[in-house]
Amino acid sequence: MGKRYDAIVVGGGHNGLICAAYLAKAGRDVLVLEKRDLLGGAAATEELYPGFHFSTCSYVVSLFRPSILRELQLARHGMQLLPLETSFTPLAGDPGLCRWPDPQRSRREISRFSARDAEVYPEFSLAMTKMAQLARSIVDAPAPDPTSWNPRELARLLRLGNQLRRGGAEVMDLNLKLLTMSAVDFLERWFESDVLKAPMAVSGIIGTYLGVRSPGTAYVLLHHYMGEIDGAFRSWGYSKGGTGGVSLACARAAESHGAEIRTGAAVERVLVDNGRARGVVLAGGDELSARTVVSSCDPRLTFLGLVGARHFDESFVAAIERYKLRGSSGKVNLAVDRLPEFFGREGTAHLRGDIAIAPGIDYLERAYDEAKYGDFSKRPYINVVIPSLLDPSVAPPGKHIISMFVQYAPYHLAEGAEHWPEKREAFGDAVVDTLAEYCPGLEESILFRHVLTPWDLEKEYGLSEGNIFQGELSLDQLLFQRPAAGWSRYRTPVRNLWTCGSGTHPGGGIMGASGQLAAAALLESGEL
Amino acid sequence: MPEPSVFHSRTAQLCTSHRWKDWGGYYAVCSYDMSPEPEYQAFRHSAGLIDVSPLFKYEIAGPDAAAFLSRLTVKDATKLRVGRVTYLCWCDDDGKVIDDGTLSRLGEEHFRLTAAEPSLHWLASVSRGFRVTIEDSSARLGTLALQGPESRRILERVTDVDLAALKFFRVAAGTLAGVPVWISRTGYTGDLGYEIWVGRDGAERVYDAITEAGRGHGLLPAGLDALDVARIEAGFVMNGVDYFSAHHCLTESRKSSPFELGLGWTVQLDRGPFVGQAALAREKQRGPRRAFVGLDVSWAQLEEVFARYGLPPELSLHAWRDGRPVYDGEERWIGQATSGAWSPTLKKNLALALLPAGHAATGTPVRCEVTAEYRRHTVAARVVKPPFFDPERKRA
Amino acid sequence: MSDFDVIVIGGGTNGLTAAAYAAKRGRRTLLLERRDVLGGLAAGEEFHPEHRTDGVLHDTAGVRAWVARELNLERHGLVRRAEEPPVLLPATNGPGLELWRDPARTAAELAATSPTDGAAYGRHREFLARAAPVLSRFTDHAPPDLHAPGLGDLLQLGRSALGLRLLGKREMMELLRVVPLSLDDWLGEQFETPLLEAGLAAPALHHTYSGPRSPHGAASLLFAECTAGAPVAGGPRALVRALEAAARARGVEVRAGAAVERLLGESGRITGVRLRGGEEITAGAVAASCDPKHLFLDLVPAAMMPRNFERAATAYRARGTAAKVHLALAAYPDLPCRPGAQPAAIRIGEDLETLEHAFDAVKYRRFSERPILDVRVPTLESPDLAPEGHHVFSVLVHYVPYDLEGGWTDAQRENLLHRVLARLRLYLPGIQDAILGHELLTPVDLETRYGVTGGHLHHGEQALDQRLVRPFLGCARYATPFPGLYLCGSGAHPGGGLTCVPGALAAREICR
C-alpha cells in the first residue's frame, strides 16, 4: 500500500471536482477517481459523431453558484457561460409563444393568447423575485435542522423564522403555497393561458416522477428567479464547449491547487475498518488509502453499493432503501445538417434559447399518466437546445446539434427496467416524431441520433435508477432530509466517509453547491 | 423589438437624427434633430407636434361606467360631465399609486382613460359586478399632442371643432381634414395645447393636415426629450421616473401614495367605496410622510463649485432621470430628486423631489448633489411648489 | 340597535353549532337556512317515495367529543356508538377484507392472506395514535395568526413545535418525512395487500383533487384518522336533531326557507343581511357557514372587496370531484364474497392503481370509467328511513368532475349511473333487481341544491396549503377583512366533514 492521501473523492463529476478543488485549495492532498475515461460524469462533453461534440447528459447549466466561479477562478480555467435568453414554445400550425429578454416583446407575444396574462407576467416575476431572495439563503448554506437542540441550530431556525416574519404574512403564505402546491395550481393563481402555463409549469417536474398537477411541484418555479437575482448570469446558461466545459474547468482548478485526478479508475468499494473509512479498492484490486473518503455518487450507490449495508444500522439502511430515485427522463441527441424550421418563425433568434415542447397542461398530464403505468410518453415533454447556434465550436460549420431532454421515460417500465435496451430506439422514434410535428422535415436533416434511457444513465454514468438529480427533489427528500433525516450535513454514519453529490443538500442540477458546501463542512470539522 | 405607431410613416421620415427609444413597446422619437432645444422652444414659443400614441387607452362603456370608474380611481367619476376631462390616479388596496392618466367623458355611458402602463387586467378585475365593457383601444387609436402658444391657431385652420368654446380640460368630437377625431384641450407641457385622438385609418391624413397648417406658425415635430424638459417645468410627475407603480415595487418604501406625489387634490374620500379608500383616509388623517416638491437649485453655488476647477457650470439640454440624493443643511440624507432639468425659459436648474414632510415646506433650504470634475459636491437648493412655469395662456 | 347580536347563515351542522355556542354565550342569535329543512349536507331527504337518506355526507366519526360535551348534546339526544362498525372491502376472488380501526380484528382478517400486513397495520395504528395529539393540537384550536403573530399565537406555535419536538427526534423526523408523501409511497412502504392499501387510501383522497400517487396524500390520511372517534348513533340525522335541539333550547331563533340574497355593508363593516324578497335584518355580527367562494364572491357587496382579497377568493380551489347516488332497495342484496353478511359500510376500489386511474379521468374533465365507491347503508341502523325490509344505499362516487367536458347532459348522467351500478353489480350481483328508485346528484346538482360552489362537499379542497391556511390569507382565523363578518363553515379551519369544529371555534372568536 502506497501513499496515504488526505482525501479521496469518488467520482469526477462537477460536484466531486469542485469538492476536490476546494480541499486542494485548502492545502489538502486530494485524489479524484473517475470510472469513465472522461471527466464530468453526467456533466461531460463527448464527440459521439465525428465533428459533433455533445453534452451527452446534462446540457444546460442552471443556478451554478457564482461564488464557486469566483473562488475557484473558473473563468481563468476556461469556463464560460452563455445565457439562454429566450423561451420558445412552438405549437403545431401556429407561431407559438416566444418569451424574450425584451419585456414589451414578451408582452405582445403573450397577449396573442391572453391580454390579461401578458399584464400579469411582470407581476408574477416580481412576486417570485421576492420569494427567491428568501430561498437563496437556504441554497447557499447547509440545511437547517429543525430536530436539533443545538443552540446554534435553534438560532439559525429562529433567524430563518424571523426572515420569514419580516416578509409579512403574504410572504409566509406564498412560501407555504410554493412548497405545497402543484405547479399548475400555483400558476393558475396568475395565469389563464395554457400556452404560457405549460412551459412554465414543466420546470417543476424536471427530474421528478411527478406531473405538473402533482402537489409540491410549484417550488422549483423559484429556481428560475433565483438565477435572476444572483446577478452573475441568468438561471439558464450554456457552457462553452458543452457542459463538459464546466467539469474540465473545475478539474483544472483542482489540479492547479495540486489535486491528482485519475480517469478510468473505477472504485469497487470503500474500505471500512471498525466503522471508519480508510481508503478505496479499485476495480483491478488496487487499494488506495486516505484519511477521508468523499463520495460524489448517489446515496444508494455510495451506502449500499460502495460501502455496504452491513456497515450501517438498520434504520439508516431502511432510509436509504426508501430513498426515492425513480429516474423519469431520457436524452436524445441529434446531429443535423440544417436548423429546424418552426411554423411562422423566421431567423434564428427564437432558436437561441430553450425550446419547450409543452403545448398544454393536459398534454403534459397525459405524458405523465403514461409514465405512471410504466411506459415512456408517446408524446413527451421535450426541452430542446441547439448549442451549436450559440457555440459554433461544437459542430462543423453549417451543421448543428439538437440536444433534447425528454420526460417521461420512467426507469421502471411495466415489463421491468431491464427491457429498456430493446425499447431504446422506439423511444428515440417517439421523440423525433414528436418534434417533427412542430418542425416538418426534421427527419431528413438527421445525420446521427444518440438515445440515452434511464437504464443507460444507470449503467454508463452510475446514476442509480437513472435519476439525474441523484434522488427526487421532493419535500420529503429535501433540506435536512436529504438524503436521510439527520444526515444532511455531508457527514455519514461511517466515520471519515463524507458525501458531496447531488444526493445531498441542496442537490440537483449543475449548481455545484453540494460539492462546495461539503468541502466547507469537511474542512470545518477538523477531521481533515 | 418596438413596433411602429400609426404615425410612423411620417415621424420616421422626419427623424433625421435617428434618435429613437422604446416607449411602451413602440418606437418613439427622442428628438428629430440632434439637439432637442428647437423642439422645446417650439412648445414655449410656437408649437410642437408630438406623437403620444404609445399611451395606453381604454374605452369604458356601459350603464355602470361612471360607477365603475369611481370605484377604480380616486375621483368620483359620476360628477364628471360629458365633454369634460379630468386628471386622476388609481391605487391599490393600500392606497399606493398604480398609475395616473386622464379620464374623458365622451358620452353619458362612454369614458376614455389613458394610462402609462398596460392596465386592462387591473381594470377588468375591478369591474366585477359592474355592467361595463372595457376595450383596449391603444392600438386602434393614434394620439397627437399639439402644444404651444400657436397650437390653437394652427388647429383652427383644419378642424370644425369650435376651439374658442373648448375650454381647458374639455373634449369635443368633430372632424379634422375630413377625418373624425376627438380633440381635447390637454397636454403634458403645461402650456396651451391640444391632444387629437384619431382612428388608425385617418391618422396619416390628420398628421399631414396639421403639419401643413403649421407652416408659417413655426410648428416643429417634437420628441420626448423636449417634452421631458417641458413637463418638469410644469411639475408633472411621471410613472416610472418620479414614482413607481405599486405593481412593480419590490419594497414598500418604493411605493408612493397620491398624497406623497402631490396628487392629494385628486383624491375624493367622502363617497362610496373605492380601491384604497380606507388606507387613503387613514393617511390623510395622519398626514403623508413624504411630499413631492420642486427644487430650485442655487445657480450661484453651482457656478462656485465649478469655478473651483476653472470650469463653467455644465448645462445639458436633456432632462436627467437618474435619481440624486438630497441632504439637509447638516448634509444628512433626507430624500431624492427624481428628475430635473435646466430650464431654458426660466434659466434655472430645476428638480422634482420626494422629501420627508418635515422638509417639504416652501422655502425650506436643502442641499442637492452635483458632480463637478468627477467629484461630488452639494449645492444649496430651495423647496418650491410646482409648477415652476405656468403661463396664463394654458387656461385662457 | 341591531335586530340580533348574531346572525348565522346556513343551518348545516357548523351553522347550528355556531348558533348554539353564540346563544350559550348569551347572544341573541338568529339562524337562517335557505332550504326548508335544516342540516345542509347532513340533512336527510326523501329521494324516492318513503325512502330517505340520512345526509349527503354520511360519516359522523369526526364529530368531536368536546363539542358534544360543551353543548350538552347528550342531553339533547346525542348518543355515540360504542365502536365503529367495520368497512367491508369486497373482492371477487375471495372473502375480501373487513377493515376495523381495531388492529387486532383487522389482523385477524389478514391472518390467512398476509400476517405481515396484520402486524404492519398494528404499527400503522400505533403511529397514528402517537401522531394524533400533535395533529389535534393544530386541528382543534384556532390557527395562529400569520398577520400579526401575537404572544398567544407564538405560545401556540411554540406548543405545536414543542409537541412535535417532544415526540422524540426519531418520531418527529418520521412525521415530517411522512407528511409530504403520497399514499402510494407511504402505504406501499408499509403493506403488501393491494385491497388493504386501497381501503386505507380511498377516504383520504376524498375531496382533495388528487390520487394515490399525488404527494401529500399521507397528510390527508393522518388528519382524517387522527381526529376520528366513534360515530353518532342514528347518523347525521341524529346529529342534526341534537344540534337543533341544543340551539333552540338556548334560545336560537331558527328560520328555514330564508335565503340570504346579499350582506348589508356600511363603511367597510357588515351590518346585517338582506333576504330574498327584500327583508333586511341587522346584527352585530354575521357568521357565515356557507362556502367562502359563495360568501365573498356572491354575498359580500362587490364594491367592498379589497383587490388582493378578492383575488385570493377567486383563486381558492373548490373543484368538486364527487357525485352522490342514492338507491332505494327492496332488500339487502346478496354479497357473494361474504354470504349472509349485511355490512353497513362498503368501500369499492380494488387497488391503488384503480384509484389512480379513477383520478386520471377528472383531470381531463371526465368521470372515472371504474369509479371508487363509498357505500353506507343507513337503514341497518335506522330502519325507519324506509319501509320494513327495504334498504337505502347512500353512495359517494369518486371521481366525478364539476366541469364535465361537454356539460352534464341527460345522456352523461345516465352513463355515470350506469357505471356506478356496474361497479356495485360486480360485488352485489342481485342489486339491479332490488332497485326501486334512485337519485343521482352530480357536482352541479350538489351546487344547485346545497349552494356549495363547485359542488365541493368540503367547501374547498383539503390540499395542504388550503388546510394550513384555511381558506386563505385574510380570513384564516374566522374573522374576515370586514368587521362584523365571520366564517364558521367547512371552508374555515380545520375544514370539511361532519366535525362541528369550525362552528365551535368560530363562535369563540365571535364571542370574544
Instruction: Compute the average pLDDT of chain B.
Output: 96
Shape of chain B: globular
> In angstroms, what is the radius of gyration of chain C?
22 Å
Question: What is the string of helix and strand elements of chain B?
Answer: HEEHEEHEEEHEEHEEEHEHHEHEEEEE
Low-confidence stretches of chain B: none
Q: Major sheet of chain B, described briefly?
A: 6 strands, mixed
Largest sheet strand order of chain B: 10-11-12-9-3-13
User: What name is given to the CATH topology of the domain at 4-43 and 60-79 and 232-317 and 461-510 in chain C?
Assistant: FAD/NAD(P)-binding domain
Count helical runs of chain C.
18
The amount of beta strand of chain B, in percent, is 25-35%
CATH architecture of the largest domain in chain B: 2-Layer Sandwich
Q: What is the first-to-last residue Cα distance of chain B?
A: 42 Å
- Any guess at the CATH architecture of the domain at 4-43 and 60-79 and 232-317 and 461-510 in chain C? 3-Layer(bba) Sandwich
Any idea what the CATH superfamily of the largest domain in chain B is called? Probable tRNA modification gtpase trme, domain 1
Which percent range describes the beta-strand content of chain C?
Answer: 15-25%
How many DSSP helices of chain B? Answer: 9
Overall CATH class of the largest domain in chain B? Alpha Beta
Query: How many individual β-strands of chain C?
Result: 16
Helix content of chain B: 10-25%
Q: What is the global morphology of chain C?
A: globular
Structure, explained:
The complex is a heterotrimer of chains A (about 525), B (about 400) and C (about 500). Chain A is α/β, with parallel strands linked by helices and about 525 residues long. Chain A has three domains: about 5-45 and about 60-80 and about 240-325 and about 475-525, FAD/NAD(P)-binding domain, CATH 3.50.50; about 100-235, no CATH class; about 325-460, Alpha-Beta Complex (Polyamine Oxidase, Chain A, domain 2), CATH 3.90.660. Chain A has 17 helices and 19 strands. In chain A, strands 1, 2, 10, 11, 12, 13 and 19 form a seven-stranded mixed beta sheet that branches. A seven-stranded mixed beta sheet of chain A has the order 8-7-15-16-17-14-18, sandwiched between helices. In chain A, strands 5-9-6 form a three-stranded antiparallel beta sheet. The model of chain A has no long low-confidence stretch (mean pLDDT about 90). Chain B has helices at about 10-15, 35-45, 65-70, 120-125, 150-155, 205-215, 225-235, 275-285, 300-305; strands spanning about 20-25, 25-30, 45-50, 55-60, 85-90, 95-105, 110-115, 135, 140-145, 170-175, 180-185, 195-200, 220, 290-295, 325, 335-345, 350-355, 365-370, 375-385. Chain B is an alpha+beta fold and about 400 residues long. In chain B, helix 2 (about 35-45) crosses helix 7. The mean pLDDT of chain B is about 95. Chain B is built from nine helices and 19 strands. Chain B folds into three domains: about 10-55 and about 140-220, 2-Layer Sandwich (Gyrase A, domain 2), CATH 3.30.1360.120; about 55-135 and about 255-285, Alpha-Beta Plaits; about 290-395, Elongation Factor Tu (Ef-tu), domain 3, CATH 2.40.30. Among the domains of chain C are: about 5-45 and about 60-80 and about 230-315 and about 460-510, FAD/NAD(P)-binding domain (3-Layer(bba) Sandwich), CATH 3.50.50; about 120-225, no CATH class. In chain C, a hairpin with a 4-residue loop joins strand 9 (about 270-275) and strand 10 (about 280-290). Chain C is globular and about 70 Å long. With about 500 residues, chain C is of the alpha/beta class. The two termini of chain C are about 20 Å apart. Chains in contact: A-B, A-C, B-C. The interface of B and C includes residues 93 and 128 of B.
